[in-house]
Amino acid sequence: MQPPARKVMVVTAHPDDSEFGCAGTVALWTSQGTEVTYVICTNGDKGSSDRSMTSERLAVIREREQRRAAETLGVKNVVFLGFRDGSLEDDHLRREAIVRQIRRYRPELVITLDPYQPWRRLHNHRDHRICGILALDACFPYARDHLSYPEHLEMGLEPHKVGTVYLTGSERPDVWVDVTTTFERKLAALRCHESQVGQWPRDDFENQLRAWARSQGEAKGYQLAEAFRCIPFMT
Length: 235
Description:
single chain; alpha/beta; Rossmann fold; 8 helices
């Protein structure tokens, strides 16, 4: 499958969300020449069961882990918006921050978290739901309309029309990407997030991810796949 866009932006709530949701796809597309930008909304400073950990230390650790994972996948740009873990709100402050990055990097396709469906029928993290809403609204109509955040024009940031959004974690996917050849890179990127996955037995963790990718691929006859729900915008 050829990449559907020359420039792709992945907007997620926390460090590691991109790797879980679409790292195989990202690795495939970057190997084919696509420029990928990560926008990470929060610093992930609450995601630890280590009672000796502090939020300040964790934020530094998770940024470092995310940069290593992105490098493993060939991601060109990594932007940390720096909001606190658990603090995402559907408001103008956070939406403007995403719109600004869309106008800066001008992606044709954006990947984000599905705000409408709980991942695997489990309760979804609140930041995930709100991140998806923020990203979708930032793509359309806010990034498109010059009267939305007109201060961006003074920064030299012109309006931009995103053509398509792919949602990860959807229960109703309609796009499948064959990641059989890049799945090991997905695993390598996830292993960079030691603070999040280090406590899981490696074989069990990787076998579960491989089983999930195998189940995703069944719909199209792929050995391993990542699946998305596609939302096209009129541009």
